[in-house]
Structures are given as structure tokens and as C-alpha cells.
Write a structure and sequence with these properties.
Layout (H helix, E strand, L loop, with lengths): L1 E2 L2 E2 L2 H37 L7 H33 L5 E7 L10 E7 L5 E9 L5 E10 L2 E2 L5 H12 L6
Antiparallel strand pairs: 1-2, 3-4, 4-5, 5-6, 6-7
Length: 171
């Protein structure tokens, strides 16, 4: 055969076409195997134990995600509210027991200190006396930023320091 000045032998043309057909058959077989695998995986993915469709399953999951987002937003809002109220709550405290009059035992006198995050609050000093005049005297002092406008006794200063540091003293 002569085409455009080239001579072709029919055997070569048929052999070349047979080779191309063979390669196409191999390619087709590979694609068939891949498609079968993909169909099997899709069947496994879409088959549910209660025969729900994939679309129904996805709608349910999105609904659950939306419910979780709503719950998370409420939790975040609640946490912010708690933290805003916590600033003014008493967070630090100390109780310091002592003998007001050295001759008496039992440490019946005590100082109670209550402070917020910014060291604002109060202290109450209860002084116990069993002398003939007897009685129990209570004093309250306001604490602003860790200081009192009224001079503190040694026991009051120790209790205030303990409350502000957050460390309990050893007995």
C-alpha cells in the first residue's frame, strides 16, 4: 500500500491495531476492577442497619451538629455571666484564732477575713473576754485593695496577709 509516498505493509498496520486494541482491553479491565471496588465501597457506605437512606442520615447528623452549636453558645454565655459575677464574689478568706488576753487559754478570739479578687472586702475581729466584766466584743473593718483605713492589730494583719496570699499558715 502506498500513501503519501510511504509504503505500508498491511501486516504492520494490522499488528499495530491489534496492539492498540490489546492495550485498550487491559485499560478497560483495570477500569472495570476499579469501578467494581468503588461500587462495593459505595454500597457499604450507604447501607444502614435500619435501612435509612444516606440523605436521611446526613440530615440527622447536621441537625445534631446544630443542636451542639446552640448548646455550646448557651454554655459560653453562661460562663461569661458566671465570670462577670465572680469578680465581686468573695474568693479569698482566712480565719485566725488567737488568745486575746494571754492569761486565758483556748484561743477563743478570732479574726475572719473575706476578700474578692481585687482584695476588697472586710474583716471581723471577735475578742472573747471572760473577766468579771465578761463579754465578747466584735469589730468590723472594711478592706479596700488590701488595706484598711483603720489601724490593724497584729492578729488582723496576719489574717489579712494570709487571705491575700492564699497560703494557710501552719499551726
Amino acid at each position: 500500500m502506498n500513501l503519501f509516498g510511504y509504503t505500508f505493509q498491511a501486516e504492520y498496520i494490522i499488528g499495530g491495531m491489534a496492539g492498540v486494541i490489546f492495550l485498550l482491553l487491559i485499560f478497560d479491565a483495570v477500569q472495570f476492577v476499579k469501578l467494581s471496588s468503588l461500587k462495593r465501597r459505595l454500597a457499604e457506605f450507604t447501607v444502614g442497619s435500619d435501612a435509612k437512606s444516606l440523605e436521611d442520615e446526613m440530615k440527622e447528623k447536621f441537625s445534631q451538629i446544630n443542636a451542639l452549636r446552640t448548646a455550646q453558645a448557651k454554655a459560653d454565655s453562661d460562663i461569661k455571666l458566671i465570670f462577670s459575677k465572680l469578680v465581686n464574689a468573695y474568693q479569698k478568706s482566712a480565719v485566725y484564732k488567737y488568745d486575746a488576753f494571754r492569761e486565758m487559754g483556748g484561743q477563743l478570739s478570732a479574726v475572719l477575713v473575706m476578700l474578692d479578687e481585687k482584695d476588697n472586702g472586710f474583716l471581723i475581729n471577735s475578742v472573747h473576754n471572760t473577766s468579771t466584766t465578761g463579754g465578747n466584743y466584735m469589730y468590723m473593718k472594711e478592706i479596700i485593695e488590701g488595706h484598711s483605713a483603720i489601724e490593724l492589730s497584729e492578729e488582723e494583719a496576719a489574717a489579712l496577709s494570709e487571705a491575700m496570699s492564699g497560703k494557710k499558715r501552719g499551726k
